[in-house]
Design goal:
It is a single chain. By secondary structure, the chain is an alpha/beta fold. The protein folds into three domains: 191 residues, no CATH class; 115 residues, NAD(P)-binding Rossmann-like Domain (Rossmann fold); 172 residues, 2-Layer Sandwich (Dihydrodipicolinate Reductase, domain 2). The protein is built from 13 helices and 24 strands. It has an eight-stranded mixed beta sheet with strand order 18-19-20-17-21-22-23-24, with helices on one face. β12, α7 and β13 form a beta-alpha-beta unit. It is elongated. The chain starts with a strand and ends in a 12-residue tail after the last helix.
Length: 526
């Protein structure tokens, strides 16, 4: 597929795949640029002070890796919305359109231009405008269309967001635009983007080796920096799935093929599945892996709904697959010192109190989608899981959640072993070095203080026990190194008890959405 990125019209990008039943694959004839999609990705100005802050915080190597990865995402971040005409290449059984039909379409969140698109049928309408005679794509950087407010409204829209579009409004606008295209055909001067000897995607030959074969879902900055570089050498990355072809780029990833489908095909069969895509897609990857008896390595959150968790739990109860949920705080070196410093204290309960700052998100960021869940699911799950991890996943017997006036989320939890948890989750504060946290752990006469997952101090009645520090991103590297080695060595995965934290997170999310206070029905065990 051809894409226009960074001012260059280039072949060799992975094709958009028609992975949903109500989508159409369309060969583009005309492409009219309407505008740029903003407020979608987290970005920082190129300021040496920001780089210096991160250098002091995480070290030279980590800053270089992240900087290189982010610079490569520049083309990915340049997204536009456009309207165009084209010919249907792939349809579905109940569609109003069949292969060969000439249509007008709305592309809500795409590169500056593409030779092919896959869009929901709700964004398509039959076209009466003449089919362009010239080969290639006629690219119009400007237009004189009127009444485009519906398109402006849905700029940046994604099927995955869960936001339902007004199909009648979109269709009426497309019909209006199609009439305007017919009226101006031959008047506007496009730039014709030629298509010659196109390479369609990437090789799909999986190497026949003795190593464990793995598939990765989600090729973002996180996967490039933490997952791929830290895999055990006995694991061969044979498939990479990433919905955005501009994020994949023209580089080869792993030893096999790349795909723009966010889900595994029914026939797909690998030893290991890594999920690091959109939150609500994680469970589908886990279910596919566990049904095969394979290993599922799932970034947080494991699931966004209780229904997804019930299906995963049932598969773990009755299948042979292994599950590893990637809560990086479980793998931090700080845990070793916590256990040592609390060892002399009686009882099992460790109280956990924290203040968590997370970066304020752009308006169109995918964490804000309804399907992604609340900030408890997106980020707060880390501290809830760490609390339950330190308390051997004792069941929750009481919990409450409140949303304050400026969006702060306040959470309270009690466990069966009498441990208590409190958290203030907020995006009010300084974004100088990204996500921040301050944690106090208490057991008996010992108190432990942890700041930004890197600074550690502990004290008891007699004085300071120790003061230590670690690089806060080491936990991510340790996590994937440990998990991939455990898989290669045939070690068991996470216990069923460890899923209690994920169940509790979905219950807190549901409680937050309801807006009601804690009552007796919320005091049941998780």
């Amino acid at each position: 597929m051809y894409l226009l990125t960074a001012g260059k019209w280039q072949p060799g990008f992975c094709d958009y795949e028609r992975y949903l039943d109500d989508h159409l694959k369309i060969k583009v004839c005309d492409w009219y640029l309407l505008g740029k999609v903003d407020k979608q990705y987290i970005s920082y100005p190129m300021d040496w002070r920001i780089l210096w802050n991160y250098l002091l915080d995480v070290g030279f190597r980590a800053v270089c890796l992240k900087l290189i990865s982010r610079l490569r995402e520049k083309n990915r971040n340049d997204k536009y919305y456009a309207v165009g005409t084209g010919v249907v290449e792939e349809s579905f059984a109940d569609s109003r359109y069949k292969a060969g039909d000439h249509v007008v379409f709305f592309a809500p969140n795409h590169p500056e231009c593409a030779s092919c698109v896959v869009v929901s049928e709700s964004m398509v309408c039959g076209s009466a405008s003449p089919v362009a005679a010239e080969p290639g794509v006629r690219f119009f950087k400007t237009n004189n269309f009127t009444d485009l407010e519906p398109f402006n409204k849905y700029a940046g829209w994604s099927f995955f967001s869960g936001e339902v579009v007004d199909r009648q409004l979109i269709e009426a606008t497309l019909l209006s635009v199609d009439g305007q295209i017919s009226a101006t055909r031959g008047v506007a001067k496009p730039k014709t983007l030629a298509i010659t000897a196109e390479r369609r995607g990437h090789d799909k030959n999986i190497p026949n080796t003795a190593s464990l074969k793995a598939a990765l879902f989600g090729l973002g900055n996180y996967a490039k920096v933490f997952i791929i570089p830290n895999l055990d050498k006995r694991i061969s990355l044979c498939a990479v799935h990433e919905i955005d072809p501009s994020q994949i780029g023209l580089k080869s990833w792993g030893d096999g093929y790349v795909s723009t489908s966010p889900f595994p095909a029914v026939s797909q069969n690998f030893d290991i599945y890594f999920a690091a895509g959109y939150h609500h897609t994680h469970a589908a990857v886990a279910v596919h892996a566990l049904k095969q008896g394979a290993c599922a390595v799932i970034e947080k959150p494991l699931a966004t709904t209780e229904e997804q968790l019930v299906e995963i739990t049932d598969l773990l109860n009755h299948g042979s697959g292994r599950l590893f949920v990637c809560f990086h705080k479980r793998y931090s070196q700080l845990n070793e010192w916590i256990q040592e410093d609390f060892r002399a204290e009686p009882g099992n309960a460790i109280d956990y109190h924290c203040i968590v700052y997370e970066i304020a998100l752009p308006q169109r960021h995918w964490y804000n989608w309804r399907t992604s869940g609340s900030r408890i699911v997106s980020n707060g799950c880390h501290w809830i899981d760490h609390f339950m991890f330190l308390n051997a996943y004792s069941p929750a017997v009481k919990y409450s959640v409140t949303k304050a006036g400026r969006g702060q989320i306040l959470i309270y939890i009690e466990l069966e072993n009498s441990a208590v948890f409190s958290m203030c989750l907020t995006d009010v504060g300084s974004p100088r070095v990204g996500v921040r946290d301050y944690i106090e752990l208490r057991k008996g006469q010992t108190t432990i203080y942890m700041t930004d997952s890197s600074q550690y101090a502990s004290e008891n009645a007699r004085g300071w026990i120790r003061k230590k520090s670690v690089n806060k991103i080491d936990a991510y590297r340790r996590m994937y190194a440990v998990i991939s080695t455990m898989i290669a060595d045939g070690k068991p995965g996470d216990s069923l008890e460890s899923l209690r934290s994920s169940h509790l997170v979905t219950k807190l999310d549901k409680l937050l959405a309801s807006g009601r206070p804690l009552n007796e029905t919320d005091s049941a065990k998780s």
